[in-house]
């Protein structure tokens, strides 16, 4: 805290002072030791904030230094606020991305389940209303099988009589085919079949066809 001395002249204010010995001996004032003097200038002390040394003044360099310090502090605080805002924005974007991926995954699974349910109903209706559905399935399986001169065919028990009845038709449909042997398999759904030869097997069951539809659908939706 520094002190600044200011001079003021209060109106009508008189000052008393001690008489020295010479003045007393000359008879001024008699027994009195104080006399009124002319109004004197008085020093007023005013405390002002500043340096610790009395009477020190704030220099231009100190002002510039204080201004620079405040400017740097404001920049640091602003930079910290920007970093905090950027972090919050990044977290929000990550959360949006995660939610979007979750929504897409859930919607994809729901769509696959819906399509598969519709496919099962359509195929089931076809098998129930068209007994010859198994004929188309068997022809396609024979054409996709590795070339051989004889095959063993397994179908659902309810389809066995029909395919045996149309055996000549199947033999004529495949070039070089000499023999077809048919058998019943309750594990195979109606409308489907399994064709086997010494070279391999063709699974043309309804379940395998539905699995293929599911796989292709998931692959297509996953690529979007």
Describe this protein's structure.
The longest helix is centred in the middle third of the chain and has 70 residues, at 60-129. The chain is of the alpha+beta class and 224 residues long. Mean pLDDT is 75; it is low at 1-8 and 39-48. The protein starts with a strand and ends with a helix. The chain is rod-shaped, with a radius of gyration of 55 Å. The strands form three sheets. It has a four-stranded mixed beta sheet. A two-stranded antiparallel sheet has the order 1-4. Strands 2-3 form a two-stranded antiparallel ribbon. It has helices at 21-25, 60-129, 133-144, 157-165, 167-173, 206-222, and strands at 2-8, 15-18, 34-37, 42-48, 150-155, 179-184, 193-197, 200-204. Among the domains are: 2-48, no CATH class; 131-222, 2-Layer Sandwich (hypothetical protein PF0899 fold). Helix content is 54%, strand content 20%.
Describe the global form: rod-shaped
Low-confidence stretches: 1-8, 39-48
Radius of gyration of CA atoms, rounded to a whole number = 55 Å
CATH structural architecture of the domain at 131-222: 2-Layer Sandwich
């Amino acid at each position: 805290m520094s002190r600044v001395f200011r001079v003021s002249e209060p109106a009508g204010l008189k000052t008393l002072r001690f008489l020295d010995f010479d003045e007393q001996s000359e008879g001024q004032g008699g027994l009195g030791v104080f006399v009124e003097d002319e109004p004197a200038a008085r020093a007023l002390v005013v405390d002002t904030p500043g340096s610790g040394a009395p009477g020190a003044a704030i220099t231009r360099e100190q002002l510039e230094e204080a201004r620079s310090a405040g400017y740097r502090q404001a920049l640091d605080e602003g930079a910290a606020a920007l970093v905090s805002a950027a972090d919050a924005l990044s977290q929000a974007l990550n959360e949006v991305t995660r939610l979007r991926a979750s929504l897409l995954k859930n919607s994809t699974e729901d769509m696959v389940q819906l399509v598969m349910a519709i496919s099962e109903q359509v195929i089931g209706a076809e098998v129930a209303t068209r007994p010859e559905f198994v004929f188309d399935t068997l022809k396609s399986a024979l054409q996709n099988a590795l070339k051989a001169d004889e095959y063993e065919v397994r179908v659902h028990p309810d389809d066995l009589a029909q395919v045996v009845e149309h055996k000549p038709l199947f033999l004529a449909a495949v070039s070089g085919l000499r023999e077809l042997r048919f058998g019943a398999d309750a594990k195979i759904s109606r409308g489907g079949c399994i064709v086997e030869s010494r070279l391999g097997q063709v699974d043309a069951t309804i379940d395998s066809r539905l699995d293929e539809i599911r796989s292709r659908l998931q692959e297509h939706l996953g690529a979007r």
